[in-house]
User: Fold Alanine racemase from Aquamicrobium defluvii.
Amino acid sequence: MNQVPRGYRAVVTDPAADAGSVLTIDLGAIRENYRRLKARLGGTRCAGVVKADGYGLGADRVARALMQEGCDTFFVAHVGEGIALRAAIGTGPAIYVLNGLPPGSEADAVAAGLTAVLNSAEQLAAWREAAKAAGHSLPAAIQVDSGMSRLGMSPREVEAVAADPEALEGIDLRLVMSHLACADEPGHPANEAQRIEFDRLRAMLPAAPASLANSSGIFLGESYHHQLARPGAALYGINPTPRQENPMLPVIRLQSRVIQTRTVEKGAGIGYGHTATAEGVQRLATISLGYADGWHRCAASAARFDGIELPFVGRVSMDSIILDISALPEGRLRPGDLVDLIDADQTIDDVAGSYGTIAYEVLTSLGHRFHRIHVGA
Ligand SMILES: *Cc1c(COP(=O)(O)O)cnc(C)c1O
Assistant:
């Protein structure tokens, strides 16, 4: 509980009005994106990747929306994320921990009914010990490194597991998985090389469902689908097929509030460092969004209001950005109004492209300070 000084009450009548910016998350669009991926996958099962709090959009809300579409398998990155998700969605669905279990976290993972992704011989041994201590077998995926050199057992470790009849004692092997390094580049030769290596490595292990494809992997074709796909980004509206039209629906709308408007004369310095100077009489609006909100200092470049583009002027501050609103009729934009930063016209992929990063980074940086509205539940 927040301590409120005597004589005051923490009254919140309109949380959107109290916040600087508003992030609207369309759970209906996430569900439609899941249906689109399922249609493309045919008979292959489709999980939901909800690590990093559902890429910043609320793992619990996203998971519950996907469950309404029949999704029963989720992936998180950390044990802590898995424990929180379990509390939110109940005992039914499987929750896989992609980064594996750090030493000492096994008992908590058992208690929350999490499925370990075993990335190394050490993690396998620790999960075997945990099964012994629990007195029953424990669910696990084995991740093999098919050529990304990030996570997963090396070919040598896989051979050692295959050669040791006791290696999987107490392990209920639910999945063998690997991850593609270049799935968003369909022509990249690493894709086929990884697929072939994945098939070779999993053939050494006991029969279990296999999973290789992330969002972009689903679009590489049926030979990448196996038994389970693991999309994250595409569910959230990020284009899984860069340089082609986005087959997914947009999911988020980011709006920021106008704090103040002003008219400046020719020659006025604008913002930190005076990196901009008014070239004539200029009308400006300052909005309540900045780099502390996850809006990167070098990220785009314009907001929109009434369909009219309002360019940023000068530097992005911690909590504010200055817009040139000279294109709008005088008095049209007033303090309290919301301007659009991300919507169907300026997508997260557009914003990412404007400063040379990927939409994943834009999305996961956003939102911790915003008023979030979930619609379409
Ligand atoms: C993050 C992640 C995914 C989801 O990837 P997207 O590109 O967001 O679809 C799938 N598998 C693993 C191992 C991951 O780390």
The domain at 252-346 is CATH 2.40.37.10 (Lyase, Ornithine Decarboxylase; Chain A, domain 1). The chain has twelve helices and 19 strands.
